[in-house]
Amino acid sequence: MLYPVILCGGSGSRLWPLSREAYPKQFLDLTQSGQSMLQMTLLRLQGLSDIAAPLAICNQEHRFLVAEQLHSIDSVPAGILLEPVARNTAPAVALAAFSALEADPDALLLVLPADHCIGDIAAFQAGVDKAREAAEAGYLVTFGIIPEAAETGYGYIERGEALASVTGAFGIKRFVEKPDKANAERYLADENFTWNSGMFLFRADQFLAELEQHAPAMHSACQQAYKNAYRDLDFTRIEEQAFTACPSDSIDYAVMEKTTKGAMVPLDAGWNDVGSWSAIWDISNKDADGNVVVGDALVQDSSNSLVYSDSRLVTTLGLSDTVVVETADAVLVADKSRVQDVKSLVVALKQQSRDEGAMHKVVYRPWGSYESICASERFQVKQIIVNPGQKLSLQMHHHRAEHWIVVSGTAEVTCEDKVADEDKVFTLKEDQSTYIPLGHRHRLANPGKMLLKLIEVQSGSYLGEDDIIRFDDDYGRDK
Predict the structure, then answer these.
(1) Stretch 153-166: mean pLDDT
(2) Which residues of 393-416 are buried (b: 16+ CB within 10 A; e: fewer)?
(3) Which of 332, 283, 323 is nearest to 304 (CA)?
(4) What is the crossing angle of helices 216-227 and 204-214, to 10°?
(5) Average of pLDDT values for 286-297?
(6) Across the chain, how many H-helices and E-strands are there?
(7) What does the H/E/C string look like for 4-58?
(8) What pLDDT score does 10 carry?
(9) Mean pLDDT score, 450-463
């Protein structure tokens, strides 16, 4: 059986300010399709034969985002594996291999990054079927993308001789690092070169055998970390100590460049890794002047540009080959030829300890979201949205008090009464409010069937998110 392994890591920093560390590109709808990149990755698997539920791999901070996005498209995963630290793709896939083999000793793994775009799903599925045939014959298969341009941002694969046993599959002569422009032009003219897609298909046991041969320390660390993993709600938490000791490396470096069992299947399916704003421009519909306009924007006398408005009106005049991306708290203006360097801006923001480098104004939590509307010395105003049937942790703060005003929906409030030495539970309707004194244990829940929206006014000497003491939490968080 074929087990999709969805790699949900990565920060997508080159798509800042829309993609940020706390909510990166794989969770965003970058193609205006109504689905995130992760959801599109899963949906394009529909129609493949003999396919199991997916295995998703992500970091701990994104676990509820992954679970919610899978749930919203009715995808029930075989497992969601949580990496305690990032160790690149080879260890992540090793964990998935150990997991799949528990259910199926003949498991095939289809390894897919969660943030790629593929335009021709039929061609993609035909390539998967071809790669499956090669994998069942014992090969470790990667997909080589037929190049459309002399791209210097991708690695390349030089294919070898055709496999005698599998029509349309080839051996691998060598992997090539991202080339300069001259070599990229040469590779484009040579049909033996393809872009390295970062997608793979192989038997789980075969991959682990090759990993043990070529990277024994990695194999041992992953085996131990998975053996000591434990269940937490719907997640599998990988044991931290053993996994932290694991070497960090990609599948290419750890296995594919060393194995004698490597193979590649050429793929011409409208693939794009959506790795920069110029890639978004490439795959999007354009007006007569070559502009891509998303959101509330007015573009005049401009050409070959991308204008993305997320929260307010954006206007341009006389621009050419420019990227303008607006969000509620940050604006990017860049020459389209320089968008590969956007990640350097993110590094600079983090060096200046600015939250905009990693966080959006809207912060998502497993129960809903919150957004800071206004903040100054000793006070902050937030909008809080709680999903139906969800509740925040039972908590208290050492440095702030809170006022809650219900805008819409129904709130169930728990607040400690220190005089009676008990927690009182009561309901608030629209336009009703309550006060949570400093140091009092409290909780907010939505018992209704519609979103609960409220305004929270915080006041106190310190208003940071780390001023939370949790006593009980449905989501297993300890801070």
Answers:
(1) 93
(2) bbbbbeebebebbbeebbbbbbbb
(3) 323
(4) 130
(5) 97
(6) 11, 30
(7) EEEECCCCCHHHCCCCECCECHHHCCCCCCCCCHHHHHHHCCCCCCCECCCEEEE
(8) 86
(9) 96
Domains plus CATH for the chain?
2-272 (3.90.550.10), 285-347 (no CATH), 362-472 (2.60.120.10)
User: Residue 130 carries which side chain, given as an amino acid letter?
Assistant: K
Identify whether 17 is preceded by a cis peptide bond (ω within 30 of 0). yes
- Altogether, the residues listed in the chain come to a count of 479
Mean local confidence (pLDDT), 223-248:
95
What gap in Å lies between CA 291 and CA 176, rounded to an integer? 34
Q: What is the pLDDT of residues 402-441, one digit of tens each?
A: 999 999 999 999 999 988 888 999 999 999 999 999 999 9
Residue 145 C-beta-side C-alpha neighbours within 13 Å: 23
Asked if pLDDT for residue 479 goes beyond 60, the answer is: no
The confidence score (pLDDT) of residue 477 equals 76
The per-residue pLDDT for range 350-394, each reduced to its tens digit, is 999 998 999 998 988 999 999 999 989 999 999 999 999 999 999
- Sign (positive or negative) of CA dihedral 329, 333, 336, 341: negative
Strands (E) across 208-321 are located at: 230-232, 235-237, 262-267, 271-272, 292-294, 297-300, 306-309, 314-317
Q: pLDDT of 55-112, one tens digit each?
A: 999 999 999 999 999 999 999 999 999 999 999 999 999 999 999 999 999 999 999 9
Instruction: Name the residue among 231, 229, 232 with its Cα closest to residue 475.
Output: 232
| β-sheet bridge partners, residue 334 | 323
Which pLDDT score is estimated for 478? 65
Structural contact between residues 85 and 244, judged by C-beta atoms closer than 8 angstroms: yes
Q: Which amino acid is at 3?
A: Y
Note the Cα 222 to chain centre separation in Å.
22
pLDDT tens digits along 110-135: 999 999 999 999 999 999 999 999 99
SS3 category, 385:
strand
Task: Read off the DSSP letter of residue 153.
Answer: S
Mean pLDDT of the region 311-327: 97
202 contact partners, CB below 8 Å, separation of at least 6: 108, 109, 135, 139, 140, 141
How far is the C-alpha of 133 from the C-alpha of 129, rounded, in Å? 6
Closest by Cα among 402, 403, 400 to 462: 400
Q: What is the mean pLDDT of residues 274-297?
A: 95
Output the CA angle 172-262-213, nearest 5 degrees: 135
How far, in Å, CA of 307 to CA of 293, rounded? 5
> What is the rounded distance in angstroms from the CA atom of residue 169 to the CA atom of residue 217?
31
